[in-house]
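Student: Send me a single protein entry containing the residue sequence and its fold in token form, directly below this note:

Tutor:
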Amino acid sequence: MSDIVIETTEMHTGGEPVRIVTSGYPPIAGDTLLAKRRYVRENLDHLRRMLMFEPRGHHDMYGVIPVEPDHPEADIAVLFMHNEGYSTMCGHATLALGRWAVDTGAVEAGGRNEVPVNIQCPCGLVRTRVAIENGKAVAVAFESVPAFAFALDKVVDTRTWGPITLDIGYGGAFYAFLAAPHIGLDVRESPVRDLVDAATEITEAAKDQVPLSHPEDDDLAYLYGTILSDGRDADSDAPSANVCVFADAQVDRSATGSGVTARMALQLRRGLIEIGQTRRFESVTGDVFTGRAIRACKVGRFDAVTVEVSGRPYYTGTACFTLEDGDALGGGFLLR
């Protein structure tokens, strides 16, 4: 047996998995969280593949590595990982981490009905509020880092549909946004495979044709994925459905917290919502996240907004993962 023994807590938010490493990771070097992100990418990526890929995970697995924070206000700090690498923000995981931090005692509840938990993510400090009912942590909300509309009505040439017009928003990560009916799809009715193929093609085209920049750090300036919606950005009554396809064609089962944040920043820029307004967003599983535009701010040259996103995470179990010597497949593989 090799000396690799990694223990995890398993959770989900809206059906999207969250595998939180609780022990077994080697020390992670770096003075800042982004430096730690670079370190694991360059030195410990074999452990990401082991935990995210088959036979322990699957193509759409998602994980979290808690690390030492360097932000003075942070209670905990984390790195996010998935099938392609390491993301800068993850809303569904942040919601789960808020509950996990209270339940494990990383942040003491102290008899309060609502507990603040500050989580340092690679994109910045994210403040969460964990609701306590009958002594148990339940629903969680987080206030996003400043989100902004990077580009509106950007024309991108695609292989399948020719020129299409899309928006690009930032909510801790950059996403391209397009109403699915514009390319003949329905996020509630079309096969998920068709939505994945379409979003992947759009992401690849936008990456090639739309240079990105972030005022605070070049490490944040990459397109994480594409979010296809039902196009109901102006309807505030019923939940608006969307599906997020990110990283290597990974499908988010939740409504995507960072995507909700970016989508509301786009809605605010277009004058479809106002500060203080609430919207609801439905995922492919039918789960709903709530977003509320909290306050206007600036990020470099961009008019920005912080958004409060709320949802409910759940536990699914714990695990202890090992790697046996001589196991040629145990390091991780993917069939899709």
